[in-house]
Recover the amino acids of this structure.
């Protein structure tokens, strides 16, 4: 997976989390994930299609999700509150929106699909051409995980090949 | 959340009335809290572009804060339809997707300004004052200050 595709998402997540949680955010471990995705807690997934295809998962451990959503709501929320899911969705939207804004300015065009809540403990296994990168963000409210699996679309790769020929 | 000097309507000194349009409940609540700190009032909320049009007709807000990516009808199309019917409408697009094509399309179709998410309250406050122009007045309420 090309780091040039991943870096805008890391930058966007770092900016969104540090601004939203009003504290410093540290980018922790980066690991390649070859096995099926295992959900940590409350996880929202956003699919991208267009010049780059794939998906982004923003995943917060249950207690971290409650703390983050409560922070945004300005009140303590119970773990069952629907606003927790909404908060994770909106954070995922902001991260993806900011990242694709940067990539769009580099000439990439996308369609962003609405967020989906991951409910299964384990997701689909990533394929060879969409290997996933897991990035850990350490925040004052707990760990936030971002799983990114992206690849150039076949059309985009064909355009590149034609340009090089 | 930080308090700002209240922005009132110049013509009658009443709070500025807002229509908040976003498919995310979280985003609507967040914007509503910011509006309170600006001394404003939420006239209505909508979760999609079609509802936004009917809520605008019903409430005639001073400002619309409009997301772009929404179900039913996207924000740019809703903004265009509202401005066609109400050329005086002041619509500020509020979206996480802030690339140039989107911003230009929104402005060409009637939006007055664009704020990228995550929204910084101080940025939105300045944009609202700018968009209101002479129709908005910052009151020097005791204890308030940006």
């Amino acid at each position: 997976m090309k780091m040039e595709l991943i870096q805008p998402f890391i930058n966007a997540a770092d900016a969104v989390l540090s601004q939203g949680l009003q504290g410093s955010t540290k980018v922790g471990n980066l690991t390649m994930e070859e096995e099926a995705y295992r959900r940590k807690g409350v996880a929202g997934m956003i699919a991208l299609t267009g010049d780059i295809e794939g998906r982004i998962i923003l995943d917060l451990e249950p207690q971290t999700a409650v703390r983050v959503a409560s922070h945004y709501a300005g009140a303590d929320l119970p773990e069952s509150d629907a606003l927790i899911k909404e908060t994770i969705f909106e954070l995922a939207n902001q991260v993806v929106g900011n990242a694709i804004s940067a990539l769009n300015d580099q000439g990439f065009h996308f369609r962003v699909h609405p967020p989906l809540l991951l409910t299964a403990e384990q997701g689909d296994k990533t394929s060879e051409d969409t290997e996933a990168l897991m990035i850990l963000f350490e925040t004052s409210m707990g760990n936030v995980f971002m799983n990114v699996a992206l690849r150039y679309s076949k059309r985009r790769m064909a355009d590149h090949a034609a340009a090089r020929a | 959340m930080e308090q700002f000097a209240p922005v009132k309507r110049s013509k009658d000194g009443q709070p500025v009335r807002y229509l908040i349009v976003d498919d995310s409940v979280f985003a609507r609540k967040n914007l509503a809290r910011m509006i309170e700190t600006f001394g404003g009032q939420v006239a209505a909320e909508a979760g999609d572009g079609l509802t936004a049009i009917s809520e605008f007709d019903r409430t005639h807000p001073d400002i619309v804060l409009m997301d772009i990516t929404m179900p039913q009808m996207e924000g740019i199309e809703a903004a265009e339809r509202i401005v066609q019917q109400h050329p005086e409408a002041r619509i500020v697009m509020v979206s996480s997707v802030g690339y140039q094509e989107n911003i230009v399309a929104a402005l060409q179709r009637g939006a007055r300004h664009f704020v990228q998410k995550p929204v910084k309250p101080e940025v939105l406050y300045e944009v609202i004052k700018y968009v209101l122009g002479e129709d908005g007045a910052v009151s020097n309420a005791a204890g308030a200050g940006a």
User: Anything to note?
Assistant: The mean pLDDT of chain A is 86. Helices of chain A lie at 3-20, 62-73, 82-105, 154-164. The two ends of chain A are 23 Å apart (CA to CA). Chain A touches chain B at residues 15-16, 19-20, 69, 72-74, 82-83, 86-87, 89-90, 93-98, 100-101, 104-105, 112, 114 (CB under 8 Å).
